[in-house]
Amino acid sequence: MADALALDGLTARFGAFIAVDDVKMTVSDGELRVLLGANGAGKTTLMDMVSGRIPCVKGSVRVFGQDVTNWQEHKIANAGIGRKFQIPSVFRDLSVRQNIEVARCHGQSVFQNLRFGMSDSDKRRVSEIIEQIGLTGVQHRTAAHLSHGETQWLELGILVAQDPKVVLLDEPTAGMTADETQKTADIIKNLRGDHTLLVIEHDMSFVREIAEIITVLHLGKVIAEGSVSDIENNEEVRAAYLGSAGIS
C-alpha cells in the first residue's frame, strides 16, 4: 500500500524551545491515523508543518512521494492536503448546499460560482456530500442558523468537496454533545478509504471508536505507535498520558 503521507525527521523550533523533535511517521493511503498526546505535546504544531502554516527547521514532508517541505500553504493545499481547524469557517449567509457548491466549483469568485451553475456530475456530488455529512434535511438552511455540530459537519463537507488526498482534522468533536460526537465518528469512519485522515483528538471514547492506528506524542517526540490495544498496554504511554484509565 502506498504512503499517502511520509514525515521524516520533522522538527520545529521556537527560539531555544523544540516543539517537535525528529518525528518520523508514515500514513498509508486510505488510513485513519489518530495523533494522541497531552496539551503541549506538539500535535497541532506537527499539523502546522504538514499544512505549511509554519516552517520546519529539519526533516521532510512527502505527499504520495512528492516533497512539499516548507511549501506555501496554498501550494500544499493544491498538492492534496486539506485541513479543518477547531473553529469552523463557513459562509454564514449562504445555505448548506450553497456552501458545498462554492467549495466544489473551480472559479475564484463565490458569486460567479453561484451564478453560472454547475455540471450535473458536480450537482450529484454535492448531494452525495450533503448526505454523507448528514445535513440533507437542512441543506437549504442558512449556515448562520445551524447548531454547533451541524456547522462542524458543514465545514467537513466543504473540505471533502475540494477532494483532498489527505485530510487533517484538529479536535473535530470539540464542544459537541455525546450524540453529535457519535455522529461525527460515523461520518469520519465513512470517509476513510476514499481519503487518508490524520486526526488530533482528546476524547478517548471517540478515539476508540475511530482509531485504526494511534501515534502518541510526548514533549515533541513519538513515544509509541500501534493499535488501541497496543497503546493502552504501553507503559511509557500510561506514564506520560493515559494513567491507569486507558482509552475508555
Separate helix tally: 10
The stretches of 5 or more residues where confidence is low (pLDDT under 50) are: none
Do you know the CATH architecture of the domain at 1-80 and 202-248?
Answer: 3-Layer(aba) Sandwich
| Mean pLDDT over the full residue set | 90
Within CATH, the superfamily of the domain at 1-80 and 202-248 carries the name P-loop containing nucleotide triphosphate hydrolases
Largest sheet report: 6 strands, mixed
Instruction: Determine the structural class based on helices, strands and strand pairing.
Output: alpha/beta
Give me the CATH fold name of the domain at 1-80 and 202-248. Answer: Rossmann fold
Number of strands: 10
Order of strands, main sheet, comes to: 6-7-8-3-9-10
3D shape: globular
Query: What order do the helices and strands follow?
Result: EEEHEEHEHHHHEHEHEEHH
Can you give the helix content as a percent range?
25-40%
Task: Give the N-terminus to C-terminus distance in angstroms.
Answer: 31 Å
Radius of gyration: 18 Å
Could you describe the 3D structure shown?
The protein is α/β, with parallel strands linked by helices and 248 residues long. The chain has a domain at 1-80 and 202-248: Rossmann fold (3-Layer(aba) Sandwich). The protein is 37% helix and 25% strand. A six-stranded mixed β-sheet has the order 6-7-8-3-9-10, sandwiched between helices. The radius of gyration is 18 Å and the shape is globular.
